[in-house]
Amino acid sequence: MYTLLFGGRYTRKLMNEIRLKAHAKINLGLDVLRRREDGYHEVKMVMQSLSLHDEIRIRKSRRPGIRISCDHAGVPTDGRNLVYKAAALLMEEFSITEGVDLMIRKRIPMAAGMAGGSSDGAATLVGINQLFQLGLSQKELMERGVTLGADIPFCIMRGTALSEGIGEILTKLPGMPSCYIVVAKPPIDVSTKFVYTNLKLNELTDHPDIDGMVEALDRKDLEGITTRLANVLETVTLPAYPVITELKDIMKTEGAQGSLMTGSGSTVFGIFTDEAKAKHCAYKILSKCYTKECFVTTPYSPAQ
Predict the structure, then answer these.
(1) I want to staple 16 with a disulfide (CB 3.0 to 4.6 A). Which of 60, 72, 192, 208 is the partner?
(2) Does residue 151 have an active-site annotation?
């Protein structure tokens, strides 16, 4: 019945369409505690949404079925896509007989450790709920979302959160202090399976100070956050993919207070207090041809 920017405000009335922002995420800290008997890894992470986002447009159709289009040729538009799975999950549960047309405007790098697909799926759950007035709460959407992927509950919540379990146990945290974040995704795709298979938990001696990170967020202490940036998965990716180390080094040389790989890679981010330095860093990365996917963004909070 309307258009709503996910986490934003009502913008203009439409009869049968809704548009939502699907925000990227980074991990400010990522620790792996153990491998469970079911094969999943138990983690302890601090997750942060970014202003960088995809856009999802959902339009009702008299023609039954789910149809997806995207402005990026590499995105599947069939049942493999989490957008399709999210729409199907709610439409089947609530016996929705109308069809939907979904358009994805892609801006988050793919296969990057930034939860782009999960965020698109999360936005679709929110959009279908609103468009068809299903009345599900955020908690109820998150409970359904975790059946599609461990990152989806956070992508529904958004903002800053402590993530535990396999990523589905979330505790909302105070938002990051104001800063600028350079995000660079090198032209390599890192297999999450490869990273976790080669992670030697019994050999890890240094673990991220996640509790200290949470305390720094409580204090709005940006330096306390940046000095604690750590990701145990780098023990696998840095030796295997030297470009990740090169990007981290460039960001620090260009003035980043801290730099880290997010998720299982391959995206690297750097945190800056000075916008001009952040933009110059992005220019340097692009001009040296490390990647064509480099952005300057900011932390995102649902209150924005």
Answers:
(1) 60
(2) yes
Q: How confident is the model at residue 299 (pLDDT cuts 50, 70, 90)?
A: very high
**120 pLDDT above the threshold of 90:** yes
DSSP 10-37: EEEE-SSEEEEEEEEEEEEEEEEEEE-T
Domains of the chain: total: 2
* pTM score: 0.92
Give the CATH number, domain containing residue 200.
3.30.70.890
In a domain, 66, yes or no: yes
Quote the tokens at residue 73: 């040729």
> What's the average model confidence in pLDDT over 38-64?
94
Same domain, 237 and 279: yes
Q: How high is the pLDDT of residue 289? A: 81
| Tokens 């041809």 -> residue | 289
Residues spanned by the domain of 272: 180-297
Reply yes or no on whether 200 is catalytic: no
Give the phi and the psi of residue 246 in degrees, each rounded to 5. -60, -45
217-224: Cβ within 8 A, 24+ apart = 217/46, 217/160, 217/173, 217/174, 217/175, 217/176, 218/173, 218/174, 220/174, 220/177, 221/177, 222/176, 222/177, 222/179, 222/257, 222/271, 222/273, 223/257
Active-site annotation holder among 31, 54, 120, 151: 151
Which of 25, 44, 185, 248 does the annotation list as catalytic?
25
**Which of 204-208, 231-235, 269-273, 278-282 shows the lowest per-residue confidence on average (mean pLDDT)?**
204-208
The answer on 23 and 163 residing in a single domain is yes
